[in-house]
């Protein structure tokens, strides 16, 4: 009798088709469940990002993102940096510390430690920052960033001998450190409690003659502790580089015999109102002030100053020997500008 079934249930092809069908169904169910879970996760993730956009993301949320949603490490670091931009350094520190407990890869741990050390430094916690960078250097002694920040920390702590030791390490990895070494030696001389001011002044002036980039450091010291040496060698300095220092000198601290021989100094102090020798100046700001001093109409215009880093181009209201932004040394250039007098602003307040 003719069998109408195409395949018998004992037929090998029939069994193969059943297996294929089972695998297909199982795969489909697994795929469907995966899609569902992904949609739920995306929904929760979007909800969390919504909180981030509103500025209410907490420290624990970052760890939750990393653990639950496998958000990339770099993305977590980028999100955590939002705390730093808002000045919430302690929250950023909490994120870095928590991530350090979860991350196992040496490269990621090193990056986290660098960020943690940098944040401690910005927060003024120099001892903690120092400990972090020393820890990094134990397993990565040629880490340039760690060495650079350690140098800054030792300088701020006035541990100049240790800072010079760091420079030796940077020298070994072919960093150009000769001027920085001279700079630290000058700071060490200025901070020396044994040397007399007379001896310090002589050493500092000799260092300036070796490299005139030290001008601001040396002039500031001499104006404060050895005005006689400063005025006796006034011709050796660039007056425009130290115009703010010259401007703020009291009348009795000025050597008027020297001023009488130097045209630019006469212009500065005519603009200041100390003398009336000059009627104009090639420097716009000084020329305006001289004109106002010669006018019968009183004005509240005065000479103010800002400082622009020649390296990073950032503006700073006060002079610092190391740029607060890029940490380059002696790169701030003084720029005179007209503004309200400080006495006028004080009376207004």
How is this structure best described in words?
By secondary structure, the chain is mainly α. Helix content is 62%, strand content 6%. The chain has 17 helices and three strands. The chain has helices at 12-53, 59-68, 73-85, 89-102, 106-122, 126-139, 144-156, 160-172, 178-191, 197-210, 215-225, 227-232, 243-247, 256-259, 263-272, 284-294, 342-348, and strands spanning 301-309, 315-316, 332-340. Strands 2-1-3 form a three-stranded antiparallel β-sheet. The protein starts with 11 loop residues before the first helix and ends with a helix. The relative contact order is 0.04. Mean pLDDT is 83; it is low at 51-55 and 345-349.
Question: What is the tally of helical segments?
Answer: 17
Order of helices and strands: HHHHHHHHHHHHHHHHEEEH
Rg calculated over all Cα atoms: 34 Å
How are strands sequenced across the largest beta sheet?
2-1-3
Average pLDDT for all residues: 83
Global morphology: elongated
Number-wise, the strands total 3
Relative strand content:
5-15%
Largest sheet: 3 strands, antiparallel
Distance between the termini: 116 Å
Low-confidence stretches: 51-55, 345-349
Structural class: mainly alpha
DSSP helix fraction: 55-70%
Record keyword descriptors for this entry.
elongated; 17 helices; disordered C terminus; mainly alpha; 62% helix; 349 residues
Write a concise synopsis of the structure shown.
By secondary structure, the protein is mainly alpha-helical.
Q: What is the fold's blueprint, element by element?
A:
Elements: H1 12-53, H2 59-68, H3 73-85, H4 89-102, H5 106-122, H6 126-139, H7 144-156, H8 160-172, H9 178-191, H10 197-210, H11 215-225, H12 227-232, H13 243-247, H14 256-259, H15 263-272, H16 284-294, E1 301-309, E2 315-316, E3 332-340, H17 342-348
Antiparallel strand pairs: 1-2, 1-3
Helix pairs in contact: 2-3, 2-4, 3-4, 4-5, 5-6, 5-7, 6-7, 7-8, 8-9, 9-10, 10-11, 15-16
């Amino acid at each position: 009798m003719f069998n109408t079934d195409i395949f018998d249930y004992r037929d090998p092809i029939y069994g193969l088709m059943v297996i294929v069908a089972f695998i297909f169904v199982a795969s489909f169910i697994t795929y469907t469940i995966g899609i569902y879970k992904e949609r739920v996760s995306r929904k929760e993730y979007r909800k969390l990002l919504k909180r981030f956009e509103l500025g209410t993301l907490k420290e624990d949320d970052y760890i939750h993102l990393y653990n639950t949603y496998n958000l990339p490490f770099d993305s977590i670091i980028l999100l955590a940096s939002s705390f730093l931009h808002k000045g919430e350094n302690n929250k950023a520190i909490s994120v870095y510390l928590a991530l350090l407990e979860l991350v196992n890869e040496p490269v990621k741990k090193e990056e986290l430690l660098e960020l943690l050390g940098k944040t401690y430094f910005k927060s003024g916690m120099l001892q903690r920052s120092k400990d972090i960078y020393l820890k990094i250097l134990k397993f990565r002694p040629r880490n340039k960033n760690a060495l650079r920040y350690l140098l800054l920390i030792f300088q701020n702590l006035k541990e100049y001998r240790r800072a010079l030791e760091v420079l030796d390490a940077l020298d070994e990895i072919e960093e150009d450190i000769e001027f920085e070494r001279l700079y630290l030696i000058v700071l060490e001389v200025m901070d020396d409690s044994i040397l007399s001011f007379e001896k310090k002044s002589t050493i500092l002036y000799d260092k300036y003659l070796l490299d005139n980039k030290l001008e601001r450091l040396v002039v500031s010291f001499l104006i404060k502790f050895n005005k006689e040496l400063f005025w006796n060698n006034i011709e050796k300095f660039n007056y425009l580089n130290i115009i703010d220092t010259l401007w703020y000198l009291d009348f009795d601290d000025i050597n008027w015999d020297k001023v009488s021989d130097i045209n630019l100094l006469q212009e500065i102090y005519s603009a200041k109102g100390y003398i009336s020798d000059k009627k104009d100046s090639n420097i716009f700001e000084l020329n305006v002030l001289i004109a106002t001093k010669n006018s019968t109409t009183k004005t509240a215009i005065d000479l103010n100053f800002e400082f622009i880093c020649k390296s990073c181009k950032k503006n700073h209201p006060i002079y610092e020997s190391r740029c607060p932004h890029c940490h380059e040394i002696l790169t701030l250039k003084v720029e005179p500008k007209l503004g309200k007098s400080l006495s006028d602003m004080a009376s207004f307040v």
